[in-house]
Structure formats: C-alpha cells, structure tokens
C-alpha cells in the first residue's frame, strides 16, 4: 500500500506522514470534528474520552482496528479515573486522571494528577539496567507528585518528581528548555526531559 500524502497540522506547525500500512492505529485519534476548520489538536483527541464522544469507538458496524502489540493489561493501584482512555501495558500508582488519554506503556508515579492531557506513552519498557541504574537519569514516564494540565506529552518523555505543568500565565506561544507552548498547550516533545521540581 502506498504512503498517503503528508498531513500538516497548522496548530503544531509540524508535518506528519500517515501510512495505513505502517501505523493503522493512527485513526483511533481522529474524530468527525477533524474535518472542521482548524482547532486545537487537544480538543479533537480529548473529545474521544468524553461522556458523548463524536464517534463510537465500540461500534460493531464501524469498528476501530489498532495494531496488535500483545502487551499486558494496564496495572492500576488506587487510581481515580474520570472521562479517560487508558491504553494497554501501562502502570499507574495512586494517580488522579481527568479527561485525559493515556497511551501504551505509560508509567505514572504516585500522587500524580493529570487533567486535559494527552500522554502518548513509550516505545519500550525501561529497567534499572537499561538506564544505567544512575539516579541522575530521570526514568521514562511521569515522576511522583507531579501535576499536569492541558498538555501533550510525546513518547518516551521523562518528567521528574514534583513537576508542575499548568501554563498559569496563559502563554500562547513560547519555546522553553525541553518543551514548547502552542495555542496555550504545553507540549513535551518525543524523548523530552523535564527535571524534577520544574514549574511551567
């Protein structure tokens, strides 16, 4: 199957090539509103986690197929979920998740609060051995005690303990160390690192 043309998202100012052969799961993040005039990308994605999503992900007449990954079920302990989609293979410990989408292999530490956030997850599981067992390297995922609101966290991001991401000053556009802001949404790029105690 040939590659489809590039799709440009004017909000993120990035061009993404979508291939049905390479990534059939990409359509799980599209909604009927995606054909409307440009709007914040987080609104399109997060609508899928609402009580009345724009498309029915569980319809037998029009099923959504994703690529089989054979990951274990998500492990959760004392987690509060409200209007959330949690993908397989994740580990979540005593977190509060509201109106958010949690991608595959996401690691969310103790006491984390997520709201209105898309977390893409990770491409791999990390152990002490493959991150050299040094305390200086932040593990993949979100560290304990962090609070994140209105953000997009790309794959393999490393967010330290007690990080606060809120964009309290309502900045529309900014480029910071390890992150950037577009349309008021804080974006942590793929493989991005946010040190412990950072406030954005």
CATH topology of the domain at 75-194: UDP N-Acetylglucosamine Acyltransferase, domain 1
- Going by CATH, the homologous superfamily of the domain at 75-194 would be Hexapeptide repeat proteins
Shape: globular
**Strand/helix succession:** EEHEEEEEEEEEEEEEE
Structural class: mainly beta
Radius of gyration: 17 Å
Largest sheet: 8 strands, mixed
Helix content: under 10%
Give me the number of helical elements.
1
Named CATH architecture of the domain at 75-194:
3 Solenoid
Can you tell me the residue ranges where pLDDT is under 50 for at least 5 consecutive residues? 1-39
Please, what is the average pLDDT?
78
Q: What is the straight-line distance between the termini?
A: 43 Å
- Provide the CATH top-level class of the domain at 75-194: Mainly Beta
- How many strands appear in the DSSP assignment? 16
Percent strand equals 25-35%
Structure characterization notes:
The chain has a domain at 75-194: Hexapeptide repeat proteins (UDP N-Acetylglucosamine Acyltransferase, domain 1). The protein is 3% helix and 32% strand. The protein has one helix and 16 strands. The strands form four sheets. Strands 4, 6, 8, 10, 12, 13, 14 and 15 form an eight-stranded mixed beta sheet that branches. Strand 13 (173-176) and strand 14 (179-182) form a beta hairpin. The protein is globular.
Summarize the structure.
3% of the residues lie in helices and 32% in strands. The chain has one helix at 41-46; strands at 6-9, 14-17, 75-77, 80-86, 91-93, 96-102, 107-108, 113-119, 141-142, 147-153, 158-159, 164-165, 173-176, 179-182, 185-188, 193-194.
